[in-house]
Write a structure and sequence with these properties.
alpha/beta; 7-stranded parallel beta sheet; 428 residues; 12-stranded antiparallel beta sheet
Length: 428
């Protein structure tokens, strides 16, 4: 049995092979890295493998102690090859990105995360760790046919509720895990509300101005009424196990842009039931509106961040009408009400774990009193992302696992995860 994963690649027909002469390698921002024991896990169920066009796979040669690029099929030197990456299942965070060398004609990669994948002892392995034990989006819990029937039944029954119709499409067209759980009457349910946004994120998955980059799903085109929102949320809060309802989804803009509607719908929910958790996923741009939602009964907030360094935050989010300081104020506001705060931390190995980023993250935690970091993989072409935000390495990357270990040591009460927790013990 081998003790290190070997390189995998795809041939011209898209068939995947391993090449035992080279070890699997990983990418840390602008550098290639040799994979160490403990950096890989078996490919989680529900993950996908992607071919990376016009990108040559890179592996590590243990004998020569150097990285090598596979420029042609080693089993047929007349045929070209392409790199392979994994899109790992929810609840898992990548430790390294896929290692490859882009050719001049390489197209922009779609908005997914590209984790290093290899082959070890007759199975695929990936450079990742499980950061959340919650199984709410585990592949084995989804019965596609049952979910489809449930969605169609509820869409027919509540045909005048536009939000139910929208979420039905999210379920059956895009396979949104949160929407699927809604129609299984369990766990966290989505409440998209806003067709507009005050940021222009380069990796936005619901709106893209670039012709060579497609949004992965359609954005909601209307603002649901508080009654429509309540029609989705109230039954879920009353009956679902570990019930959470969340404003702010991938299929919308910024929910704080509809704060008045959110405030009315939160009050409507809490007039009907005190059970479950009402959560807001947001860019945190309007702290004054967060204050109002807290007063209405909001329980928790999750703010999205790609970096705690302002120049890189601005390079990704392109904020319109708000500043980085507003994000901190939003979290401070909800904490002042005794509520729960987390960040949706977009992880890119080599960038997220850079020493300078670590220092700014520590300062951010100290200033906000953050409760939880959701270690979410950044869904974007890594090379394009680093170019677009004008990234320049200024310090050493410590590794994602080391980053988490340091944070645990410095902030013992800080939690790590992937999902918005249910904060109501009575909803278990």
């Amino acid at each position: 049995m081998k003790d290190r994963p070997t390189l995998v690649y795809a041939d011209a027909d898209g068939k995947i092979f391993d090449w035992p002469e080279l070890e699997m390698a990983g990418r840390s921002a602008t550098e290639w890295r040799r994979i160490r024991p403990g950096d890989w896990i078996p490919l989680p169920a529900g993950s996908e493998l992607f071919l990376l066009p016009a990108r040559l796979p890179v592996g590590y040669h243990p004998g020569k102690k150097r990285f090598e690029t596979l420029s042609h099929d080693p089993y047929d030197t007349t045929r070209p090859v392409q790199a392979v990456a994994a899109f790992i299942a929810p609840a898992h965070t990548q430790v390294y990105s896929a290692a490859y060398k882009s050719l001049p004609e390489a197209p922009l990669l779609p908005l997914f995360a590209y984790t290093a994948v290899g082959w070890l002892n007759d199975r695929f392995v990936v450079t990742g760790i499980r950061v959340d034990a919650d199984e709410r989006q585990d592949f084995r819990h989804f019965d596609a046919e049952l979910i489809r029937r449930n969605a169609q039944r509820r869409m027919k029954k509540e045909s005048k509720n536009r939000l139910i119709q929208h979420l039905g499409k999210c379920t059956m067209t895009y396979g949104c895990p949160a929407a699927r759980n809604l129609f299984m009457n369990r766990w966290e349910a989505p409440l998209p509300t806003s067709p507009v946004c005050n940021a222009r994120c380069i990796g936005c998955i619901s709106f893209q101005a670039k012709e060579d980059l497609c949004a992965t799903q359609d954005r909601i085109t209307f603002v649901p009424t508080p009654e429509e929102i309540g029609g989705v949320a109230v039954p879920h809060l009353k009956k679902a196990p570990r019930a959470v309802v969340s404003f702010g989804q991938g299929c919308e803009g910024e929910p704080l842009m509809q704060a008045s509607s959110l405030e009315k719908s939160i009050r409507l929910m809490r007039q009907s039931t005190t059970r479950g958790t009402i959560n807001l996923n947001t860019n945190g741009s309007l702290p004054g509106q967060v204050e109002k939602l807290c007063a209405a009964g909001l329980d928790s907030i999750r703010v999205s961040l790609n970096s705690c360094r302002r120049k890189y935050y601005n390079g990704y989010f392109n904020p319109h009408g708000y500043r980085f300081e507003d994000i901190k104020r939003s979290i401070q506001n909800i904490k002042s009400h005794g509520k729960f705060a987390s960040i949706n931390y977009f992880v890119l190995p080599g960038f997220t774990d850079e020493e300078d980023e670590w220092r700014e993250l520590c300062r951010f935690i100290e200033e906000t009193g953050l409760d939880l970091i959701q270690m979410r993989n950044l869904n974007i072409d890594p090379e394009w992302y680093l170019r677009t935000i004008n990234y320049t390495p200024t310090s050493k990357a410590m590794g994602i696992r080391e980053l988490m270990a340091r944070l645990e040591h410095r902030f013992p009460d800080l939690r790590f995860g992937y999902f918005n927790p249910c904060l109501d013990p009575g909803a278990s």
